[in-house]
Design goal:
Order of helices and strands: EEHEHEEHEEHHHEHHHH
Number of strands: 8
Bound molecules: octanoyl-coenzyme A
Radius of gyration: 18 Å
Distance between the termini: 29 Å
Structural class: alpha/beta
Length: 260
């Protein structure tokens, strides 16, 4: 199988550009997440890599979020393994010492939004057809506490409460207004803007920026780190319920219908 992640590392700037290239919509399957984490880990360990830009090679979509097929009709063991990989992705990105920038070149629902939210800065393509947000409740599922915390740390309590209860997906201007993304640029300028922004962030001494980042994020990270196993059990028992499986099936059918 062809790689789902392509990394271009520029030795001269210390910046890696990671392209998600898993057709059709970069959904986060167990295979995808495993490959993703291996790549982030490699860059994290490489002292010469100081910045990471995450983007998508797929047209119109940054990432469709967690692969729904990984949560539908799977054994509890497999669900647990999958969830551990989702936790791993979040922990690696949210605690990264690198400057991380999401170059959001298309729609970014649910897990895609979460991935963006773990970054230090978000630049989104200004196309009203794109949307971003934690829409879990629309699927009849519940965003876990660490999804909620990540959003709350970004846009505040009240906005998160409304967004999560209603499972809101925002268009780019709405997302900018609530601070879910930091900047909108024309579609063809997402990557160049991300690169320029990275230069600004890298002008700050690494150690000072890293300690500050850690100070802001550590309580949120510790909360999951000390509860990982319980969080996995919680996910598995929730997602394997008949009623939840039924909600997922209906959502999948809706996705297919909407297409035709
Ligand atoms: N997982 C699996 N397959 C998907 C997903 C997904 N997340 N998203 C899309 N697909 C499939 C579609 O079904 C379609 O399949 P097919 O070609 O076989 O019909 C194919 O990908 C292409 O999709 P579209 O035709 O819809 O492509 P568009 O370009 O029109 O739209 C979108 C792209 C906007 C990304 C659209 O596909 C979409 O809205 N997808 C659903 C996104 C979504 O709701 N994701 C939520 C996932 S749940 C999650 O991430 C967090 C869960 C937390 C769990 C907590 C439990 C306790």
């Amino acid at each position: 199988t062809s790689p789902k992640i392509k990394v271009d590392f520029d030795q001269s700037t210390g910046v890696a550009m990671m392209h998600m290239q898993s057709p059709p919509v970069n959904s986060l399957s167990l295979d995808f997440l495993t490959e993703f984490c291996i790549n982030v880990e490699k860059l994290e360990m490489d002292k010469s890599c100081r910045g990471l830009i995450i983007t998508s090679s797929q047209p119109k979509v940054f990432s469709a979020g967690l692969d729904i097929m990984e949560m539908y009709g799977k054994s509890p063991e497999r669900c647990g393994e999958f969830w551990k990989a989702v936790q791993e992705m979040w922990l690696k990105l949210y605690s990264s010492n690198m400057v991380t920038i999401a170059a959001i070149s298309g729609s970014s629902p649910a897990g895609g939004c979460l991935m963006s939210l773990t970054c230090d800065y978000r630049i989104m393509a200004d196309n009203p057809r794109y949307s971003i947000g934690l829409n879990e409740t629309q699927l009849g599922i519940v965003a876990p506490f660490w999804f909620k915390d990540t959003m709350k740390n970004t846009v505040g309590h009240r906005t998160t409460e409304i967004a999560l209860e209603l499972g809101l997906l925002y268009n780019p201007s709405e997302a900018l207004k609530i601070g879910l993304v930091d900047q909108l640029v024309p579609e063809d300028q997402v990557l160049t803007t991300a690169t320029q922004t990275m230069t600004k962030w890298l002008a700050i001494p690494d150690h000072a920026r890293q300690i500050t980042k850690s100070m802001m994020r550590k309580p949120t990270i510790d909360k999951l780190t000390s509860n990982r196993e319980a969080d996995i059990q919680n996910f598995v028992s929730f997602i394997t319920k008949d009623s939840i499986q039924k909600s997922l099936r209906m959502y999948l059918e809706m996705l297919k219908k909407r297409k035709s």
